Amino acid sequence: MRVLLIEDDKMVGAAVEQALRDAAYAVDWVTDGETAIHVAESEAYEVALLDLGLPLADGREVLRRLRALGRKLPVIIVTARDGVDDRIDGLDLGADDYLVKPFEIRELLARMRAVLRREGSGSPALLSNGMLHWILQRAKLRSTARHRCLPPASSRCFRRCWRGRVRSCRAARLSGKSTAGTRKSRAMRSNS
After folding, report:
1. 27-32 contacts: CB < 8 A, separation 24 or more?
2. Res 117: pLDDT
């Protein structure tokens, strides 16, 4: 899953970026509002994490401009502004969620998954480890070089493998069994 991190604080940004990479997300980190708007207009992201206190264009302006362009990019505001009026304003401007700093990275990851599960979030249901992207509804496997549509049986097998439920697709195909108890790897666990 590709994430746009919009955070001007170097310590917070570096910590969040590393935590997201450790959880197998592809992250682009920008530190000002103008760059955020430019990048969000020209690149495809599954979710944006937006701080409000940004230089050049504040987070509310970034959100206004993204929504004015008709972008359905799910946005989670991640900010130290904890007032009720700030939260209401952010959500009314079009944010999909609002998380107050400091926060646990596990909660941020859970909120990202929840936002992406919502109907109409603007993103297709997608599993990704940063190199391979699988669009669930279309059973389409994408890498940087190729796009492949999978037949239904391969699609089911690939889904089980991706989620770490079998040791290999070949073993699952040969045995016809699902080993749902198989331990998930760290990278797969964060995306399921």
Report:
1. 27/2, 27/3, 28/2, 28/3, 28/4, 29/5, 30/4, 30/5, 30/6, 31/6, 31/7, 31/55, 32/8, 32/56, 32/57
2. 82
